[in-house]
Amino acid sequence: MEMLSDSEDDLCRAAAALRSGDLVAFPTETVYGLGGDAFNPAALAKIFEAKQRPRFDPLIIHIAEVSVLERVADLTALDAEMRKALDILSAELWPGPLTLVLPKKNSVPDLATSGLPTAAVRLPDHPVALKIIRYSTGAVAAPSANPFGYLSPTRAEHVAEQLGGRVDYIVDGGKVRVGVESTVLDISGRRARILRPGGMPRERIEELIGPVDTAAAEGPLPAAPGQLKSHYAPRTGLYLYSPEAMMAVPWNKSEAFVFFDGKFRDQWIAGNRLEESSGGVPANIRVLSESGSMNEAAANLFDFLHELDNPQYTAIRAVEVPETGLGPAVNDRLRKARAEAKDNPQPYQGQTG
Length: 353
Ligand code: TXA
Ligand code: MG
Known about the structure:
By secondary structure, the chain is an alpha/beta fold. The chain has helices at 8-19, 41-51, 69-72, 80-93, 110-113, 127-135, 156-163, 202-209, 243-247, 262-271, 294-308, 327-337, 339-343; strands at residues 2-4, 24-27, 32-37, 60-63, 98-103, 118-122, 139-141, 169-171, 183-186, 193-196, 213-214, 238-241, 256-261, 285-289, 316-319. It has two domains: 2-223, Alpha-Beta Complex (DHBP synthase); 238-337, Rossmann fold (3-Layer(aba) Sandwich), CATH 3.40.50. It has 13 helices and 15 strands. α1 crosses α6 (127-135). Its EC number is 2.7.7.87. Belongs to the SUA5 family.
């Protein structure tokens, strides 16, 4: 594995590597992706192998121009209403954290889509990702660059630690901006349906195209790949509480605590009589956003969990966040990261990856 910078020379090298079938991890605005040429089945096979990802869980194809859509998606097979939705969403929300599931073109290898008749496509909002895609073949398949089931990477170091031996290059673009994966919206049928809550809030999508459905809790497998209850999980057991339930959980120096905002942390510290006599807030207590900004909370979520997933702590105790903006995406990741979910691998609503 070689670490690359975001210099023009290095991005050209990264793109050349992709063209020759190598794997390149690169930053997007959501999380780091593990990229391979979307049209090269051997590169796609390497992605599944590197991530230890089950072959039934399809990949997202990343493009850098809307015009490339026609190379991967069969737009003539779209329902008329959904065709309009595509035009609006791609014009308004791309580049951005929105993945669209569309009828696929036959030229897209089955490995990319796990044999489904649809392909997931997105146009990321990150200059490094866009250049790498443009300088390569124009279509890069990339799942999040983590071992299957583990926390998603928000920094190049996370990729190096988890997949360093399994990827040819990692492009370092610093910490990502959004911090949770893209929203996956299926418009391949007659109605738009959210398969995975993510970095594009439902409200923003509905403002543009009206009400959208949510994937059924227990969809049949082919219609809803990657529906696993456990995902995004740290090795340290994570336990999730409502704010009310969290108030009853006592402080323990060998455990880590994750709160949404500073106000709740202060209440909890007071409730626990953990006065600041100990010289400030103990290091094992974190808040996702001191001021309660949901965007900041989402950006810090995986970053903090990476830090706290450390043998120094025997458990991570986290509190659910409000369901506004990116809140549903943050809560979805927290629920799937729970230790309980790990012990009980049953289908769970929403998408994974
Ligand atoms: O933000 C993101 O989406 C990141 C960055 C790297 O772009 N990528 C990402 O990929 O999260 P991954 O592979 O971790 O998650 C892809 C999700 C999975 O839940 C997968 O099941 C779903 O997209 N997916 C892919 N193709 C699909 C299809 N044809 N139909 C339904 N779901 C699909
Ligand atoms: Mg993933």
